[in-house]
Amino acid sequence: MDKTPKTTNTACHATPQAASEKEGRRMIARDFGRLMAIPPSRGARWTGTTADLMEAAHIAYTEGGLRRADGSPLPFAQVARQACRSLNRPAPHNPSGRAAKAAARKGVKQDTLLGRYTWLAANGRRRSLIGEMVETPN
User: Fold this and answer.
1) Are 58 and 96 in contact (CB under 8 A)?
2) Cβ distance 103 to 21 under 8 Å?
3) Taking Cα atoms as reference points, which of 75, 35, 76, 46 lies closest to residue 58?
4) Residue 86 and residue 46: Cα distance in Å, rounded?
5) Whole-angstrom Cα distance, residue 80 to residue 94?
6) Sign of the CA dihedral 74, 39, 52, 123?
């Protein structure tokens, strides 16, 4: 019988939680991209918290899918301003700080937006939480 301990390289194998978080980030970036396409004239309103909106904006920004016409990435401040403009909402004075605070939420009733999307991905559910936080007039 071989007494050599078996080792596995865990760096090569993503944990289910990490895979779900990665999928959650992709879902947020996709949903946020749709949100950015809403023209302000449509009268859509964000019904979620500013923290959720800034967290979604920051995740979409870090995922790298939001670009200018020339292909260069949009700066985060512009992403945040454009999202607020699309949703007829005043932009926070410090969107980066608001996004950081939102991502650091712990021990409060409301989980982070990423935490909620990660839970959805881990449980095989495909919902647009971001889409549910946007109200459009009839």
Assistant:
1) yes
2) no
3) 76
4) 9
5) 10
6) negative
How far apart are alpha carbons 114 and 100 in whole angstroms? 12
Distance CA 60, CA 86 (A): 15
pTM of the prediction? 0.76
Counting every residue written for the chain, the total comes to: 138
Place of tokens 């946020």: 32
Per-residue pLDDT tens over the stretch 85-127: 999 999 999 998 888 888 887 656 667 888 888 888 888 887 8
Query: Could you write out the three-class secondary structure of the chain?
Result: CCCCCCCCCHHHCCCHHHHHHHHHHHHHHHHHHHHHCCCHHHCCEECCCHHHHHHHHHHHHHHCCCECCCCCECCHHHHHHHHHHHCCCCCCCCHHHHHHHHHCCCCCCCCCHHHHHHHHHHCCCCCCHHHHCEECCC
β-pairing verdict for 45-46 and 134-135: antiparallel
80-95 exposure pattern, b = at least 16 Cβ within 10 A, e = fewer: bbbbbebbeeebbeeb
